[in-house]
Batch of 2 targets.
Target 1
Amino acid sequence: MRSLFFFSLFWLSLNDSVKATKVFQNLFINRGTLTTIKNTTFPFLAFNATSTFTAENVVVSCLKNDTLIITVTNNDTTLHGFKIKNYSGISYTINPAANITCTLFPTQRSIYTFYDHLAYPRNMYMGLAGMIAVKDKANDKVYYWNLKEHFTVFNQQLGYGLNWNNYYPDYFTINGKSYSQLQLDPKVKINNQVNDTIYIYVANTGQSMHSLHFHGFHPKAVYSDSKLIKQNWIKDTWGMFSMDCVVLRMIPDKTGKYSVHDHNLVAVTGGNTHPNGMFTIMQINP
Ligand SMILES: [Cu+2]
């Protein structure tokens, strides 16, 4: 009887320790305008945390083994979709003013991209694609880079009647921003100390390939859903197809300032001006 009592206590505490934390996230599909680094503007869509439009998709983040509950509200006037890449069973269409709720059970450090899969790739091209970043520990040092390119003419047509053979992007962004705005985004600009362990969550939600080159360091892929990138590869340039995701781990061994940029140098421009594109400078302190 006594041993049964102690067993019950043990069982209760075991259940308690594995009880998942519930993380709630609201997403709103909003329509608005992206203002480029050169102050030109074009129509854009995004998944935002409130019904107020910003030209940056929310990063949804949680810890592994959390229960993630996402509610998506369509704040636009047209039908939209919500799908999560590599997570089966989550695929919805959402009427204007309606909402859906879905639940995920992520079990490892990883990235899932969520996007509007209707009229693919039009709605996604117009901006509706973001990332769910699953962290290992609450105090992980993390950065989130959502890569994307834009062709002003296509956005002005609201993505309708496009011929992708005539796709010549003229703006290249991370989280909807370009250099030098990127130096002010704490989700992008790496600012750490020597020997810190840094995790960079990268998703390419554009239509083009992007190839990130790290100066000074060779990060390691600790998670990849890309055909091009194997887990545990260590290298300095990371080519990523559209919708590829990778989590890179970097442990800087020296101080200084180092560039990271898209190795296709056109992607380091914005409206033909260099270096107004996919480019940021890392700061490693003693
Ligand atoms: Cu380079």
Note: The radius of gyration is 20 Å.
Target 2
Amino acid sequence: MNTDEAQATPGAHAFTPEARDAVYHAIFSRRDVRGQFLPTPVPDEVLSRILTAAHHAPSVGFMQPWNFLVVRAQDAKRRVHDAFARAHAEAADMFQDEKRAMYQRLKLEGILEAPVGICITCDRERTGPVVLGRTHMKTMDLYSSVCAVQNLWLAARAEGLGVGWVSIFHQADLQQALAIPRNITPIAYLCVGYVSHFHDRPELETAGWLPRLPMEELVYFEQWGRRDDRQPLVEHLRRDQAAAQRSRRAGAV
Ligand SMILES: Cc1cc2nc3c(=O)[nH]c(=O)nc-3n(C[C@H](O)[C@H](O)[C@H](O)COP(=O)(O)O)c2cc1C
């Protein structure tokens, strides 16, 4: 297909329906995994694929500010877990009454059970002080590393690997546990491994912590806060949200 034909045909560059459905299926059936890790080792060729997917994330000014610290040694995992335990105890005290009891019942990490930990970081000085696209919004480099996290998370889902993001740390504790220098920002500590099953809904939703928000309340038109139920898009959003639910159920295996 030449450029003119492609311009005349909407979706000319779309994936085949099967490939497109596979992408959406990965998105809707991805879960944050805490409690279902199996001890089965993750082969290096699989680990390499998901890390390479992460490295192909977008980044501001093509800065690629990330590193990937692979944690397989039990003593390193133990240090990370100790850092989690300290912050977790503090966090519980910040909730009141029934919410605190609920918080304490939640499993919020799989640091010791997951065969692999991956800490994704951000080197904010990687390409010098002036970065194309980051000149006025300084946090864009951090967001770039978050994009790497999401790429890895989705690729892992396609590989049948669960990923759980653990953020309940004092940043300095996590840095100390993994000898991360002060000028490097840890973005995500990810627990990675094969799983017994994927839940079909977020665990926090099932536990009654918070519900998924309705899409149509989140989409505004032309200016902040302006909703418009007469827009045909709104009906599509409702339908697609229901379809997403079906897709994630099909993925709950
Ligand atoms: C930035 C970030 C930090 C998170 N930190 C934690 C965490 O410390 N412990 C945990 O159990 N889940 C953590 N999560 C996972 C969320 O709780 C989870 O994504 C959310 O409940 C929706 O569930 P789902 O990912 O299965 O769709 C984190 C997610 C993000 C994006």
Note: The radius of gyration is 20 Å.
